[in-house]
Specification:
Helices cover 13% and strands 29% of the residues. By secondary structure, the chain is of the alpha+beta class. A 3-stranded antiparallel β-sheet has the order 1-2-3, with helices on one face. It is elongated.
Length: 55
């Protein structure tokens, strides 16, 4: 970042459906073309889906 320069950061929020199956947590993001992600706990699918929503 450059000192004195103004920056704007945009945040996007997308709905997701999370469910547990066979000990894993899966997440589906309908607004992102039904993107699907999974992980061992809630933090993993939420974090993995996050970059997909960036323009």
């Amino acid at each position: 970042m450059i000192p004195g320069k103004e920056y704007r950061f945009l945040n996007y929020v997308y709905p997701a459906v999370f469910y547990e199956e066979e000990g894993k947590i899966s997440g589906i993001f309908p607004d992102l073309g039904n993107l699907v992600t999974f992980g061992d706990d809630m933090g993993m699918p939420a974090a993995q889906g996050s970059p997909a929503g960036r323009p």
